[in-house]
Design brief:
ATP binds at residues 117-118, 143, 200. There is one protein chain. The chain is of the alpha+beta class and 305 residues long. It folds into two domains: 2-136, 60s Ribosomal Protein L30, Chain: A, CATH 3.30.1330.10; 151-294, Phosphoribosyl-aminoimidazole Synthetase, Chain A, domain 2 (Alpha-Beta Complex), CATH 3.90.650.10. Helices cover 31% and strands 26% of the residues. β2 (78-88), α3 and β3 (113-121) form a beta-alpha-beta unit. The protein has ten helices and eleven strands. The strands form two sheets. A seven-stranded mixed beta sheet has the order 6-8-5-9-7-10-11, sandwiched between helices. A four-stranded mixed beta sheet has the order 1-4-2-3. α2 (57-73) runs parallel beside α3 (93-109). The protein binds adenosine-5'-diphosphate and magnesium ion. Adenosine-5'-diphosphate is lined by residues 7, 11, 23-26, 84, 86, 114, 116-119.
C-alpha cells in the first residue's frame, strides 16, 4: 500500500470544525476569525525514547494530540486543528488503525480537525504533531506575567504519570498514556491568570520557567501539593520527587491575583484547583514544609542533559 492509500485510509476523515480545505491538496486553508492571533506549536515523539516500543498504538495516537492541545490551551487559546508528520519503519495496518483511532478520539473529544501532514518511511517510528489554535489578539497568557503576591495554582494532581510509569499495569498508568489536556480551564484563565505553563517536565522545572520569564521568585508549600491517594502513601521524599519532578502530567500551573482567583472560583470548573504557594519579589524557589524552610532540589526531565 502506497503513501496515498495510507493517508486516504487512516487520516482523511471528516473535519470536526470549520476548515476551508483539509487533507488532499498541497496545503490546507483556514480563514482566521477576525481579531484573532494564530497560536501554533509542535511536539515530536520517538518510539523507544518518548514511549516504550510496545505502548498501545491507540494511546500513542491519543497522547500525540493531547500533548499539543495542552500547549495550545496553556496560552489560554482555543485549539482548532492539527497536522501530523508520521515517519514509519514499515506499514503495519493493526498499528495504523489503533494509532489513527486514538488520534481521532482525542481530536473529536476537543473538537479539533486533522487538516494535513506528511507520511514518510524511516528506520525509527517518529510522530510530530503540529497544533493550531486561535486567541483574541493580545490576550494570550504567556509565562512572563507573574506578579509578587499572585497565588500559584495547579490543576488536578501531579506525579500520577510518573507513578504510572514506575508501576505499569496500575490504574494510574492511564494518566501516563491518556493525558487530559485542560482545554476548558485554559480558556477560562484567559483574562484572569497572569502567567501559565503546562506541566510536561515536572512542576519544579516548569514553575521555574514561569519564575525565570517573569523575573520573580516563589514560595511553595510542600504539604499543599495535590497528589493522588497512591502517591500520598509514599514516603515523603519519594512523594515530593514524583509531585515536583515527575513529568508527563499535562496539568496547568498558573499564577493569578487573589482578586481574580475569587472571580475564577465563581465559575464552574471541570477540574480541581489547588493553591500551592505565592509569587515573591525575591528570586528563587523556596520550599516550606508546614512553614519550615526545606532545602530540597528537584529537577525535571531534560533532553541532552
Ligand atoms: P506533497 O507531496 O504536496 O507534500 P503529500 O503527498 O505529502 O503532499 O500529501 C498529500 C496530502 O495528504 C496533503 O494534503 C497532506 O497534508 C496530507 N497528508 C500527508 N500525510 C498525512 C498524514 N499523516 N496525516 C494527515 N494528512 C496527511
Ligand atoms: Mg505538493
Amino acid at each position: 500500500m502506497a503513501e496515498f492509500s495510507i493517508i486516504d485510509t487512516y487520516f482523511n476523515r471528516k473535519n470536526a470544525n470549520s476548515v476551508d480545505l483539509g487533507v488532499g491538496d498541497d496545503s490546507a486553508l483556514l480563514t482566521p476569525p477576525p481579531q484573532q492571533q494564530l497560536v501554533i506549536c509542535a511536539d515530536t515523539s520517538v518510539a523507544g525514547w518518548h514511549f516504550p516500543l510496545d505502548t498501545h498504538p491507540h494511546a500513542i495516537g491519543w497522547k500525540s494530540v493531547a500533548v499539543n492541545l495542552s500547549d495550545i490551551v496553556a496560552m489560554g487559546a482555543k485549539p482548532h486543528s492539527i497536522l501530523l508528520a508520521l515517519s514509519l519503519p514499515q506499514i503495519d495496518h493493526g498499528w495504523l488503525k489503533g494509532f489513527s483511532q486514538g488520534l481521532y478520539d482525542c481530536c473529536d473529544q476537543f473538537g479539533v480537525s486533522l487538516i494535513g501532514g506528511d507520511t514518510t518511511q524511516s528506520p525509527h517510528l517518529t510522530i510530530t504533531v503540529t497544533a493550531l489554535g486561535w486567541i483574541e489578539s493580545g490576550k494570550a497568557v504567556t509565562r512572563s506575567g507573574a506578579q509578587p503576591g499572585d497565588f500559584i495554582c495547579v490543576s488536578g494532581t501531579v506525579g500520577d504519570a510518573a507513578y504510572g510509569l514506575r508501576h505499569l499495569g496500575h490504574p494510574l498508568q492511564k494518566r501516563l498514556d491518556y493525558p487530559s489536556p485542560r482545554c476548558q480551564l485554559g480558556q477560562q484563565l484567559k483574562g484572569l491568570a497572569t502567567s501559565m505553563i503546562d506541566i510536561s517536565d515536572g512542576l519544579a522545572q516548569d514553575l521555574g520557567h514561569i519564575l525565570d520569564a517573569s523575573n520573580a521568585g516563589a514560595i511553595v508549600h510542600l504539604e499543599s501539593l495535590p497528589v493522588s491517594p497512591e502517591v500520598a502513601k509514599l514516603e515523603q521524599e519519594k512523594k515530593w520527587q514524583l509531585a515536583l519532578a515527575g513529568g508527563d502530567d499535562y496539568e496547568l500551573c498558573f499564577t493569578i491575583s487573589p482578586h481574580n482567583y475569587q472571580l475564577l472560583m465563581q465559575q464552574k470548573l471541570d477540574v480541581n484547583l489547588t493553591i500551592i504557594g505565592q509569587i515573591t519579589q525575591n528570586l528563587g524557589l523556596t520550599y516550606l514544609q508546614n512553614g519550615v524552610n526545606c532545602s530540597i532540589q528537584f529537577h525535571g526531565y531534560q533532553h541532552f542533559a
